[in-house]
Design brief:
The structure holds two protein chains of two kinds. By secondary structure, chain A is α/β, with parallel strands linked by helices. Chain A contains twelve helices and 13 strands. A six-stranded mixed beta sheet of chain A has the order 2-1-3-12-4-13. Chain A has a five-stranded mixed beta sheet with strand order 8-7-9-6-10. In chain A, strand 1, helix 2 and strand 2 form a beta-alpha-beta unit. Chain A starts with a helix and ends in a 12-residue tail after the last helix. In chain A, 44% of the residues are buried. Chain B is built from twelve helices and 13 strands. Classes of the chains: A alpha/beta, B alpha/beta.
């Protein structure tokens, strides 16, 4: 009898973390991939689907900007986040988060490029022509909207952007970097290929008015990363649901609204291009905060 | 003999000193230069530009005489204004906007011409040995994109003036954009104030686009009154007063344009030849949303475009 009680207590203690966890919500962060209002609308159905399947409410929170990722994970007790490639690389390195899955877009892509672009009527064709101009970055904590451009400039002998450009500023979102150049508020822009191509496909005048002058290698697109001490059961369930939701009619419907065909498995190895890019940009990811 | 020659030498020295002083003083008076300015009508955009021009010259220590011409926006008035300035032989002619600049250029004067607030000088063949200035390049297509995000546009009323070259060029560009973006243009030529009545009687309109035209901008109050009554959002390429009632403005900063013009004038006054001074593109583009008027008219500017604004009027 004593042995039975002992076993019951041990079993209860073993199951407790999961049970306690199961009663709480799961907080997932979103980096400002596009306009945050549109982005919330896009992710809400996915969160509701996951909540229903897991049986735990998934709550979304927008990170005010890309660089908040590491601090927010710790301060706000976030359980996971859909992170841009550099944010994920920083969180993997500093917090040991585990990348689990990323979406495959409707056009079949699951990676992004960084673009450096100008107005089509601009006389800027090379780094040399950029001297004394205005450049719009997205955020220091983005690969496509900053790190690639810095590595590109370094490769072309430019290490001090304060001296080289008349002005540089951070737009906070990739679409905003595009509008800055379209409006002539900046001469050069740096942004994500996904957002650039999406805007171009909607509006033919944008394609005519902008010209890409440099393109990076591929990086994984926004990836769901979970904190390392989430119970493995929860981690597995979230991953399984995401990876198999394209087999479920209801899941397919949600994916369609989300603008994806499926989710695919993503591992730390997928982020090698980001770690290599950081080296070329002379950025130490262990110390990098991505602050403006 | 020796004493006499000493006196003579001293007299000569005195004379040389007096003559040198007189030459210096006369040159000092001659230093005050005259700048002739052609500013069309009472357009707030040009008024801001002119104020910045004067302030910049003054802050750089230039005490110049300004001869201001304020012609009505029509070719004869612009031409007369340019001729008057040439007749009084001003040292430099400063012009705001393309029509005033073209009027000065047509007179084939050797007086240096410095322009400001000209969107695309090459498009109107604005070039010459004695001309330079400040380009104001706020893209028309961007303004259309913002307008389309506020309201669906099937029929866009374009307010232009057939006597103003830059306004006509913008109308051409809008026509191209309309076929690409799938809307129809309703052309409304505004030459006189009473022409704004055409907006009231125009067929179905979804929004109004105010081109570079000085005539259009001089009739702004009347235009905005009609726009409010017909609940038509308005978009302008020229920054006006905060209370102008225009819903969206994408404009090259008039203050920066005025300052660039002043810098060019200073360089010319210091001896530079205008032909050696490349035109300068203004870098300060302002995107202004008037949320107050927009809400009053029942429209909603999406938050994602509000975040793009450089200024919001609440």
């Amino acid at each position: 009898m004593r042995r039975l009680i002992f076993n019951l207590i041990i079993s209860a203690l073993v199951l407790m973390p999961f049970e306690i966890y199961a009663q709480q919500e799961i907080l997932i962060g979103l980096v400002p991939e596009q306009n945050i209002f549109k982005q919330m609308d896009r992710y809400r159905p996915l969160a509701a689907y996951l909540s229903e399947k897991i049986g735990v409410k998934i709550r979304l929170t927008i990170l005010s900007r890309y660089g908040d990722v590491v601090e927010r994970f710790a301060l706000r007790g976030m359980d996971g986040a859909f992170l841009n490639s550099l944010g994920a690389a920083m969180a993997i390195t500093k917090l040991g988060v585990e990348p689990v899955a990323r979406r495959v877009n409707l056009d079949g892509t699951s990676t992004i490029h960084g673009y450096i672009f100008v107005r089509a009527d601009s006389n800027i064709n090379s780094v040399k022509d950029m001297k004394g101009k205005r450049i719009a970055f997205v955020d220091r904590a983005t690969a496509s909207g900053y790190l690639f451009a810095i590595a590109f400039l370094q490769k072309n002998g430019i290490s001090d952007i304060d001296k080289y450009f008349a002005e540089y500023f951070f737009t906070g979102s990739p679409d905003s970097a595009i509008y800055s150049v379209l409006d002539n508020r900046a001469d050069i822009g740096c942004t994500s290929s996904i957002i650039f191509n999406a805007l171009v496909s909607k509006d033919p005048t944008i394609k005519r008015e902008l010209r890409v002058i440099a393109q990076s290698e591929e990086f994984p697109e926004n990836t769901l990363c979970l904190r390392k001490n989430i119970p493995q059961e929860i981690k597995n369930r979230i991953t399984d649901i995401l990876l198999n939701m394209n087999q479920d009619p209801a899941g397919k419907e949600i994916l369609k609204k989300f603008g994806a065909v499926k989710f695919i498995k993503t591992t730390v190895k997928d982020f090698s291009p980001i770690f290599n890019l950081a080296k070329r940009a002379r950025v130490d990811i262990r110390k990098y905060k991505g602050e403006r | 003999m020796g004493i006499k020659s000493n006196v003579q030498r001293q007299l000569i020295r005195c004379l040389i000193t007096i003559v040198t002083f007189l030459i210096f003083v006369s040159q000092g008076f001659a230093e005050k230069k005259t700048i002739g300015v052609i500013m069309t009508g009472n357009n707030p955009y040009y008024i801001k530009m002119h104020q910045a021009f004067i302030t910049k010259l003054s802050s750089e220590g230039y005490d110049v005489e300004i001869l201001l011409q304020r012609p009505y926006p029509d070719p004869v008035s612009w031409s007369n204004a340019a001729r008057k300035l040439i007749a009084v032989d001003v040292d430099i002619i400063v012009t705001y906007g393309a029509p005033a600049t073209l009027a000065a250029v047509y007179e084939k004067t050797n007086i240096p011409i410095v322009y400001a607030g000209v969107p695309k000088p090459n498009a109107i063949a604005l070039a010459g040995k004695n001309i330079t200035g400040a380009m104001s390049n706020a893209p028309t297509s961007s303004l259309i994109r913002y307008l389309k995000r506020i309201t669906g546009i099937s029929n866009l009323g374009v307010l232009y003036s057939e006597s103003e070259e830059d306004s006509l060029k913008q109308l051409e560009e809008l026509t191209r954009l309309s076929s690409e973006l799938g809307f129809r243009i309703v052309k409304i030529n505004i030459k006189w104030l009473e022409d704004v009545k055409k907006i009231r009687t125009a067929e179905k309109l979804d929004a109004l686009f105010l081109t570079y035209s000085a005539s259009v901008n001089m009739a702004l109050d009347a235009i905005v009154d009609i726009a409010k009554a017909r609940k038509l959002p308005t978009a302008s390429i020229l920054k006006g007063e905060d209370n102008s009632g225009v819903i969206i403005t994408l404009s090259a900063s008039p203050e920066e344009q005025g300052e660039i013009a002043a810098e060019k004038v200073i360089k010319i006054l210091r001896g530079a030849h205008p032909g050696t001074l490349s035109p300068t593109n203004g870098k300060n583009i302002e995107l202004i949303f008037n949320l107050k008027e927009n809400t009053a008219m029942g429209f909603k500017i999406p938050m994602d475009i509000v975040t793009e604004a450089t200024k919001i009027i609440q």
